[in-house]
Design goal:
heterodimer, A: mainly alpha, 2 strands, globular, B: alpha+beta, Penicillin-binding protein 2a (Domain 2), Beta-lactamase, 5-stranded antiparallel beta sheet, 4-stranded mixed beta sheet
């Protein structure tokens, strides 16, 4: 193909990613500008280094063919699972997640968070499994392979514990099933036990949901055994939900409760969310000016260089800055969906969509959390949050997407979606 | 998997639509927070960031009638701490205590102040010494929440001379904050606690300013100025009084530290207070911003009760000074004329029923006219005059003279004098039971004993009416007008004869030793029983109430010496006060032969 000789795989995608990265680095720099200086003040330099490394990695990946990606899937996935398993014993904590074991460290030097790269491995693995089928998954039995492929690393990550990344895995799973052509009824049936888990706290709601589920089962007509299994699973989760709640640690319970109403605990758990909203809200149309956000300067914002970097955007650059950032994110995702749709083969198409869905979950959960639309789960914002592994993984994704775009059918601009 | 391009396009459209709607929702949420709810969040962000440091307003300067300063403000410093919570405040106080002397009680007090107003800096030293301030300035970096603020300090240049009326200032307390009259006050502010400072708090207060300092999430002061435009304090306008500072100081000097008593000097026609003193005195400067326990105890334990205001709070039997009231009532009702004599001449006592009422002079005064009786203060004459007037009129008339009313002087906590209420029989029936008393109470009332105890200021007010035309105005310390009201009605001739008799007291009578060269002084001595004994002898309060010049009075002075013995002692002091005032005033010299 003619595109194979192009120097840059997908200039539009890369341009968006570079803009987002520069925007992000600028915000990491600003996050360090506090009235009482902290170590954060110098982190933007490291972020620049990671950005350069990331772009290099992306370029390298974009040189490799999709066939190579296919070939590397199995070893990458296996290696990821092994490392994630090993982390449960040798993992280290850092920063706001000091008690978790998400960091791979050797000799006290923290190398990175393998879970960030594991996301890509899982996307590749899921893509391979789903692409190998002739037809879209129709029954629950069809889902055991992809389900297991996600479940193993998911369990390992939840054991760290890293709830945020766990949510991303679930998002990837459902998104890729959807992209493979699974019907929405099947997706609902798969998700139904989780819904029961949540609704179990209100008997009335749970009962209503149960009726909806029965109707769905009767309409969709899965295999009898599967239909019974789904209903039973809903009963079981509905019953064990209160037990699970009791088994949760108080801080986890608190986080969920604070999500429902931050003002219940304004000084402690709700503090982050309230201060984040104050920062964003006080930004107004145009913000308080770059590096001049008082909430950030005076340390009212928690983790302002990592999980809560978006409020810095809102405070300093206002609604305009937020709209530009969200616009860039939307362009990135639309472009990725377009690449997925344009890819001639199932595997690269699924991989492209999986990578886009991972970003999507990150963006929605992170940005939503800053406005209390989502619970606080400690999930970073792509290209913005300070962190080497994540910057690297984001750019690896860009590289893969670029490659897939390059091997797609015809110039991207000719395809209208 | 189903991978037909049409299928893919359908899914891509669906995915893009979900994506688009999600972002629209997010942008909408940000629009709501950042644009629609902007004002509310800006407020919260400012609250986060700014702490208000109050800038106390200088209180109004108080002047005497000649423009001399009675109360002013000196530059001073207050030291306070900004803290996000009680725990961090305690920790900071503990560290402060390592640098300067800071007692546990001072620390607790700062915490209490913080609890009352957590958004204001907790005051540690309302009035820090220069030493403390300079030490703290040196260590400023170690205490990021420390605020050293200039705070004007109230000062009374002639403190001890002012104690009876100036009052003092101090931190507003919880009870005051809860009351309606202190609406708008904030914890930590200085307010008038007594005297003029309290009475005219609303005029002296000024308007507090605010300095905005920027703090971070841990309560550390990041920027001391420029975070927002400071609101400058506005000092209150000056307060002009009627006090004659020279006279006041002279009075205080006369009393020195040995005499106990109260003095009120009034301008007869206006009620203007020229001087007001209660001896022994104390230094109100030491009460500013909180009196030390030691000083307060020493005052409180003093048997002479320096904290008890003998000019407006203490009430004493008026004794013979009240005889003028009796005389006025008799003249007013036309029962006697100044030259009338009583049926029984004075032989040192008067037999009423089965009891003999003594005259103060055992030798007796013989047969005297009313004017002479006033001069020599003959008790026997007034016993009979009292009986002639009758108890009912004696009491009702006394009430009309204001014997049961506060004068309305512009000072807080004036005591209401006590006197029987009309009708008299009801009063005595209530007090002693229907058969527990006899008409003999009239005899006591007529000479200013019995159920009658007056404040010094009320006696001064009564004599302003005698010195003028029977009318009196409420005494006023602060300049302004007050309406005069009639206490009694005598014609000019009667007034003249009363004044002549009062002048006779000083010229020939009981106060003959207190004449002033060149000035006709009129007045009446009083030696009132106190009910307290030293050994066998009863201790008496010495009174003198008088005015001068007798026919055109410029000043009325009431002097009461607690346990001071005979009234002549009080007369001596009063005459000196009047002499000082009139000489300084370069009054016209009067013919001593007079009328």
């Amino acid at each position: 193909m003619s595109t194979a000789r192009r120097r840059i795989a997908d200039p539009t995608l890369v341009a968006i990613a570079i803009l987002l990265s520069l925007y992000g680095i600028a915000m990491v720099y600003s996050a360090g500008q506090t009235d009482v200086p902290t170590l954060v003040a110098r982190l933007y330099r490291q972020q620049i280094i990671w950005f350069v490394l990331g772009v290099g990695a992306a370029y390298a990946v974009s040189r490799a063919s999709v066939r190579f990606l296919d070939w590397v899937t199995m070893p990458a996935y296996t290696a990821s699972c092994v490392v994630l398993f090993a982390l449960l014993f040798i993992g280290a904590g850092a920063g706001t997640a000091a008690s978790s074991k998400s960091w791979l460290a050797i000799g006290g030097v923290r190398l990175g968070q393998p879970s960030e790269l594991a996301k890509i491995a899982v996307v590749l693995m899921l893509g391979r499994i789903l692409a190998s089928r002739k037809e879209a998954p129709r029954s629950l039995m069809d889902l055991w392979q992809p389900g297991l492929a996600v479940f193993v690393p998911w369990v390992l990550i939840m054991r760290q514990p890293d709830l945020g990344t766990g949510i991303v895995f679930v998002g990837i799973f459902f998104a890729m099933l959807f992209w493979s052509g699974a019907s929405w009824q099947l997706l609902v049936l798969v998700a139904s036990p989780v819904v029961s888990l949540i609704l179990a706290f209100s008997t009335g709601l749970w009962g209503a949901w149960f009726l909806v589920l029965i109707a769905l089962v009767l309409w969709y007509r899965p295999y009898l055994a599967e239909g019974v299994a789904v209903v039973l699973a809903n009963v079981v989760t509905g019953v064990v939900a209160p037990v699970l709640w009791d088994k949760m640690s108080p801080y986890q319970q608190k986080r969920l409760l604070v999500f429902l109403d931050p003002s219940t605990d304004p000084r402690a758990s709700g503090y982050h969310v309230i201060q984040s909203q104050v920062a964003i809200g006080s930004g107004g149309w145009l913000g308080k000016g770059y590096t001049l956000g008082s909430q950030k300067r005076l340390a009212f914002l928690p983790a302002q260089h990592t999980d809560f970097i978006f409020p810095v955007v809102g405070e300093e650059l206002g609604f305009l800055g937020v709209a530009v950032a969200l616009g860039l994110f939307m362009a990135l995702l639309l472009r990725s969906v377009r690449i997925a749709a344009r890819s001639p083969d199932p595997f690269p198409s699924l991989v492209a969509f999986g990578l886009a869905s991972a970003w999507f979950v990150h963006i929605v959960v992170n940005v939503g959390m800053t406005l209390n639309l989502m619970p606080v789960t400690g999930i970073p914002l792509p290209f913005f949050s300070y962190g080497g592994s994540f910057m690297l993984s984001c750019w690896l994704s860009v590289g893969i997407l670029g490659r897939i775009s390059g091997e797609g059918r015809g110039p991207a601009d000719m395809l209208v979606i | 998997m189903s991978f037909h391009p049409n299928e893919m396009q359908r899914r891509a459209r669906l995915a893009s639509a979900v994506l688009f709607l999600t972002f629209v929702f997010l942008v909408g949420s940000f629009f709501r927070t950042q644009v629609l709810q902007h004002a509310q969040y800006v407020l919260q962000s400012e609250e986060n960031r700014l702490r208000e440091v109050p800038l106390p307003a200088p209180r109004g300067v108080i002047y005497d009638r000649t423009g001399q300063i009675i109360a002013e403000n000196l530059p001073g410093y207050s030291v306070s701490l900004l803290a996000p919570g009680v725990d961090s405040l305690r920790a900071a106080l503990k560290r402060l205590a390592g640098t300067i002397t800071l007692s546990a009680e001072q620390q607790n007090q700062a915490v209490r102040r913080f609890r009352r107003a957590p958004n204001r800096p907790a005051v540690i030293f309302p009035d820090a010494s220069f030493d403390v301030v300079s030490v703290l300035e040196e260590h400023r970096v170690e205490f990021p929440g420390l605020i050293i603020q200039s705070a004007p300090k109230r000062y009374y240049p002639d403190g001890p001379a002012m104690a009876a009326f100036i009052g003092y200032t101090g931190e507003v307390n919880e009870a005051e904050l809860a009351s309606a009259s202190f609406k708008g006050y904030k914890a930590g502010q200085q307010v008038g606690k007594d005297g003029l400072e309290k009475q005219y708090e609303h005029l002296l207060r000024g308007r507090e300013g605010t300095r905005f300092v920027e703090v971070d999430a841990r309560g550390r002061v990041v920027r001391e100025a420029g975070a927002r435009q400071d609101l400058l304090p506005v000092s209150a306008p000056p307060l002009y009084t009627n006090i004659d500072l020279d006279l006041q100081k002279y009075v205080v000097e006369l009393f020195g530290d040995s005499l106990i008593g109260g003095v009120v000097a009034l301008e007869p026609k206006t009620g203007a207070v020229l001087a007001l003193h209660s001896a022994p005195t104390y230094d109100p400067n030491r009460f500013i911003g909180g009196v030390s326990a030691d000083y307060y105890r020493s005052l409180n334990d003093d048997v002479r009760r320096p904290l008890y205001n003998k000019a407006i709070k203490g009430t004493y039997a008026p004794g013979s000074t009240w005889k003028l009231a009796t005389a006025v009532l008799a003249l007013q009702s036309g029962l006697v004329s100044p030259d009338d004599r009583m049926a029984t001449a004075c032989n040192g006592g008067y037999q009423y029923g089965n009891r003999r009422f003594k005259c103060w002079d055992k030798k007796g005064h013989g047969s005297v006219t009313l004017a002479q009786a006033i001069e020599v203060s003959c008790d026997v004459y007034f016993y009979q005059l009292g009986l002639k007037i009758g108890l009912a009129r004696l009491v009702a008339g006394g009430v009309d003279l204001g014997a049961r009313e506060r004068t309305g002087i512009d000072l807080p906590a004036e005591t209401r004098p006590s006197f029987p209420s009309a009708p008299a029989s009801d009063y005595y029936n209530r007090k002693f039971g229907p058969r527990g008393w006899s008409n003999a109470v009239s005899l006591n009332l007529a000479i200013g004993q019995g159920e009658n105890s007056q404040t010094v200021v009320n006696m001064a007010r009564l004599y302003t009416a005698l010195a003028t035309d029977g009318q009196a105005a409420p005494p006023r310390i602060v300049r302004g007008t007050s309406a005069r009201a009639p206490l009694f009605r005598l014609d000019d001739e009667q007034m003249a004869s009363v004044r002549k008799a009062l002048a006779g007291v000083v010229q020939r009578g009981t106060a003959a030793a207190s004449q002033i060269t060149g000035v006709m002084l009129a007045g009446k001595t009083g030696t009132a029983q106190s009910g307290k004994y030293k050994g066998a002898a009863e201790l008496n309060h010495a009174w003198f109430v008088g005015f001068a010049p007798a026919n055109d009075a410029k000043i009325v002075v009431a002097v009461m010496l607690e346990f001071g013995g005979h009234g002549t002692r009080a007369a001596h002091i009063a005459s000196k006060i009047i002499e000082h005032y009139l000489k300084v005033q370069t009054m016209q010299v009067l013919n001593t032969e007079g009328e």
